[in-house]
Amino acid sequence: MSALAAERLRLTRRDSPAERRALSGSAIVLLSIAGACLTGLLAQVHVRLPLGITPVPFTGQVLGVLICGAFLGGGYGLLSQGIYLGLGAARLPWFAGLSGGLGALQGVTGGYLIGFVMAAYFLGACVQRSPRLRTFHAQLLLMLVAVGIIHCFGVLHLALLLGIGPVKAFALGSLPFLAGDAAKILIAATLTMARR
After folding, report:
1. Burial 14-35 (b: 16+ CB within 10 A, else e)
2. pTM of the full structure
3. Which residue range(s) make up the domain with 37?
């Protein structure tokens, strides 16, 4: 490949920050596995709220999802959460409260777990696309949308599972978590900017 062709390829690629540091494919996969482990570790930071408030536990997973998406980019952020979801479904006990298995996907947290994969991909893909989206304020906005994606999947699944309407599902599956998730967004955006 000529030097000019190599330079053109370099200028047209839209790599994540990790890829721009010329890490090998195996190193990126290892970072994706580390991201899955981070999410699994943060899942153990969980609090069961009183049953009347919500059947869904408050966890640290969302922070892990946001960090993985922002640091790894779209494809590898998706991979990290796909590994987390896949190994958890295969009974690795790293979902909230050291749980695992397909039951978690069929239970009240199943929609959120699927939303993690979509949110990490969305956030990472946006960060990869444009350097303008790597500012603190843009990160806050993108992470807010990513958390919205998680909540949409979670609330929809909760409504279908419990046979309740959208207002009740929002009250049970989103409203109790808004303040905590806002704090996670602020922490993740700050960590993202500190690394750059």
Report:
1. eebbbbeeeeeeeebeebbeeb
2. 0.86
3. 19-195
